[in-house]
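Hi X.,

You mentioned you wanted examples for the new student's onboarding notes, showing what a folding record looks like when two proteins sit in one file. Here is a clean example. The first protein comes first, with its sequence line followed by its structure tokens.
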Amino acid sequence: MDETSTSLDGKLLIAMPGMGDPRFERSVVFLCAHSEDGALGLIVNKPSREIRFGNLLEQLDLDLGSPKRDIRVHFGGPVENERGFVLHSGDYNSEAATLQVSDRFAMTATLDVLEDIAKGDGPSSALLALGYSGWGPGQLEDEILQNGWLTCDADEALVFGGDDESKWEAALRTLGVDPLTLSSTAGRA
């Protein structure tokens, strides 16, 4: 990223048709960090079909009884699938380690946030992502220039909303884009 580039921290990436990587087809990715060193994001619209929050707590040997609160578990991306990241509202801060992305969004990757959520405490809104999406220096910028992604502002209702199936189309509509009109090829004027 050079001096004229803008950080995309806290923005959403919307996968374009024909991007070429099936893992990201129709994905909406929340960018937790973006700098000249690369980017890290979490897919927010691909729920895990196999893993439930309660089962995950058991696997982590967190004996908290039956969770007082449940959150959805998502596929966050293809990197470090066994590692969990909680994307949550900005009203929670872990003493261990919370990355404050903006005043509305934060990300915590320590067990204390899972314990707090299971106890009925913790952030008011949250989703758990297993794995993350990562880009090296300049890689994301190149993918955007190659028509792989659109970007838009992140909205809490869209990010934390329960209807994962419609998040891709809803994100496109925030830009005034009808999904039916999208092309998988980039044009040059």
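Then the second protein repeats the pattern, sequence line and then tokens:
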Amino acid sequence: MSAGTVLFNEGDRADAMYIIQQGAIDIAINKGAHVLATLEKGNSFGEQAVVGTKYRMATATAKSDAICLEIPADWLGRQINSAAPLLKNVFSALTLQLLQRNYIASVANSEESSGTFTIESGGASEYAWSTFERGSTLNSVYLPDGSAIQNHILSGRAIIVSSGKLELRRGSVKCSLGEGAVIGLAEVLAGVHLDDAVDVVSSINAWSIDGDAAYSVVSKLNKGLFGVVKGFVGRVLGDGKSLGRMAQAPS
């Protein structure tokens, strides 16, 4: 494809993911106005729309002439359904965490200092959230304050909030979060530090995902699916951040 070609737009329904074989692809939100990342050879994109939600969460545009390998959604779905049940929870929670990251980036891009992320009825977040809303088999935890959350993440466990309110601070942006908030999943999968500060507004009940258990499942995936999860984690952590143990596929 030639430079400037739009592969898909934010909000489009999805039927495939892509792996870049040549060239570079810009991933942007706000109808392409704010570029979140520029991906190059070997990076994957579009997978979150296939495995976590039916809708695209960003716009993908060829920054230069590019060649991409297209992987159909139905193949990905079969691979995930045949894996351990924890994998579906990981994909859905990573989708929510990436949506949060994109929202906070859009607030920062608008030069606002605060915002509120909510589960949007009929949107990508609702589709991903439905995995947990229907009743998850993950362990539940009660977290009364920010210190409890930080300690939970430091112990290698992420949370998906089922009730309560919290405030996440990333740089100069404060984001209010409630039901559906995901804190620390990409970080505990990669085994890296959580950079964001978290304060509890009202006591949190949440599901907990053990990072080591999740990584154990992910590390047993074939190279292609491991790359999909790695792409998710890298996008949540952001450009230039260490991927920790996710940096290379297990041998």
